[in-house]
Amino acid sequence: ERATVSLIDSEADEMILFASTHSGESSFAPGARLPLKTLGTFGDQAIERLRQGGVEIIDDIASVQDLPPALQAARDEGIRSVLSAPLLSQGDLIGALSLTTSVRSVFQPEHAQIASEVANQLAIAIRQARLHDALIEELAERRRTEEKLRETLADLRKTDEARQRLLSHLTMAQEEERSRIAADIHDDTIQVMTAV
């Protein structure tokens, strides 16, 4: 009845519900964040099985001992059976494709195989999308860096032009001072000669 794609945010230790076919009110709506600790010990074991590439099937949520809060919420929404297939990217668990239904014990091995195949394709698409996003961000960063370099180069050119003008003024001032000193020396020499 419902398919959900969730992604794992390892840094935040959360599962983010990325997409869902369910259109009604739900605590499992796209964008919802579930702390992994709300899955409890049962969830830890399920995630470990998913990390190893296994498909997790719960025939009847009501039969699970010490039901963690996330599964309690699913049960309260009428969900009875769950099938979760891992989204693996280069051997790392990045999320899960979960199929849920209000019917008990509905998922069979062929459902698990089909869900695994779909999950593999989703994992590839998600990895490609992430690579694309990273490439776009890197390209934007390079453009920002290029712009900063252009601005720095323009500032350096202005500074060099100002330095050259200052040097030209300094050279002219030196020449004027030399000329003045030379004229003073020449005038002094003529005065001494005239006095003799």
Structure description:
The chain has helices spanning 40-51, 69-76, 109-195, and strands at residues 2-9, 14-20, 33-35, 56-58, 81-89, 92-101. The chain is of the alpha+beta class. The N and C termini lie far apart (124 Å). The model has no long low-confidence stretch (mean pLDDT 86).
Topology, pairings included?
Blueprint: E1 2-9, E2 14-20, E3 33-35, H1 40-51, E4 56-58, H2 69-76, E5 81-89, E6 92-101, H3 109-195
Antiparallel strand pairs: 1-2, 1-6, 2-3, 4-5, 5-6
Short description:
The chain has 196 residues and is an alpha+beta fold. 55% of the residues lie in helices and 20% in strands. It has helices spanning 40-51, 69-76, 109-195, and strands at 2-9, 14-20, 33-35, 56-58, 81-89, 92-101.
What is the 3D shape?
A: rod-shaped
Q: Major beta sheet, specifics?
A: 6 strands, antiparallel
Number of DSSP E strands:
6
Cα-to-Cα separation, first versus last residue: 124 Å
Helix content: 40-55%
Q: What is the subunit arrangement here?
A: single chain
Low-confidence stretches: none
Mean pLDDT over the residues: 86
Q: Give the spatial strand order of the biggest sheet.
A: 3-2-1-6-5-4
| Element-level helix/strand string | EEEHEHEEH
> What's the gyration radius in Å?
38 Å
Q: Tell me the strand percentage band.
A: 15-25%
Which properties best describe this structure?
3 helices, six-stranded antiparallel β-sheet, alpha+beta, rod-shaped
